[in-house]
Amino acid sequence: MNNIRKMRPGEAVSSKANEERDEFERDYARLIQSPAFRRLQGKSQVFGAGSGDYYRTRLTHSLEVAQIAREVAKRLERINPFLQKREHPGLIIDPTVVECASLAHDFGHPPFGHKGEEVLNHLLMKDYGLKYEGNAQNFRILMFLEKRAGSDSGLDLTAAVLLGINKYPFLIEEEGRLKGVYGAEWETIREIRRLWNMPAGCSTLEAQLMDLCDDIAYSTHDIEDGIRAGKIQMNATFFEDGRLLRHLVMEILNDPNNAKFEWEQVDLEKMVRRVLSDYLEQWQQIFVECNREPSRTRREMKARWVSLFASRVDIIDDLDRGWKKVTLVRNEAEDLDLLRTMEILKKLAWVTLIKDFRVQRLQKRSEIIVERLWDSFINPDKGQWILPPDWMDSYERHKGKWTWPRFIADYISGMTDAYAEKVYAELFASKSGSIYEMD
């Protein structure tokens, strides 16, 4: 069982296999020492990276997800006897694997967050019929683009970590598929899944746990940032605003993933009102407990919600799929009420932060930057002279399986927010830095 989980599909049998370090610990080291991990510090979470030294970036978000996920994994190992049986490679929870998956889950995000992803997908689809998607790009980075000493094919991670990152076990090129894995990387992922005898469309317990802890972090930490920024105002006027309520309801109804919450079983508008009212009431109570200090209150609110969600994570039978499900559980059944509450808080963060008109203006600016960069590079005859030489060398080595449009998408998507702005300024602003700056 261990061998099938610790195999490295991109790597020949390692001469270092007898090292004292566990294989998953080697994965951890490879991830945190990779340039892709460091670049997360310069990528937007909600507010643009560099907006202020308080707000989260993709890096701090990923670290927080990893911390929550590791703690929950250790608890699940203790309380679920079936995990000790290790009956199936996909029905195991190893805290180090979950931590690695959490650290790497956002590697594929381009600069400027979801707007960058949307623009790159539009540009690739419009003229070339190719898709761009952050989760798929994640595997492209981990299995092809990222470089490691002695390898020309990514970080050569173990099978367990690769499947632990794979929230959407599908080929993205399939008709109508919005999320998944690009064809080249899917061949390897599909082969691992075949060796593991994974049921179609099902993720490993480790991938499910990582995904749920990502949602826990999003629904608690991003709200903390929003309160700190003044975008979420902790008063009745803000929380009872009819426009906010309408936006939240519309976001929930328009979400393509909303079926799993079975919203039709509840009065959606009434539940949104209740969650907002309870949240404000809890804030007011904790505000008094914390001597009316807003910063202490923010931290205490966040800590209590993370603790509530994390303590309810458990594993139940997924009868529809003949598999297991990691979810929020109460009385040995899925706690749909708490799941819906978490989703409403996620949408509160989205509506008040991403949909804020100033953030929308920044996103419009970032859309223009990505489009102009694309236009500058997409003609190979001209683009090759303004691309870094190491990228061009890599393209020449792999061009038999690397189309120019995908190459340009890979290059732009690897940029941090600040680096994209820098290149844009060099190409289009009237002034730029020294030509002797190192890229």
Automatic annotation (TrEMBL):
InterPro entries in alphabetical order: dGTPase, dGTPase-like, HD/PDEase_dom, HD_domain, PHydrolase_assoc_dom
Where would one find the signal peptide in this protein?
none
Q: Which NCBIfam families match?
A: dGTP_triPase
Q: Where is this region: Disordered?
A: 1-20
Q: Supply the SUPFAM superfamilies for this chain.
A: HD-domain/PDEase-like
What name goes with this protein?
Deoxyguanosinetriphosphate triphosphohydrolase family protein
Q: Domain HD: where?
A: 58-219
**Which keywords describe this protein according to UniProt?**
Hydrolase
Is Ribonucleoprotein set as a keyword in this record?
no
Record has Zinc as a keyword: no
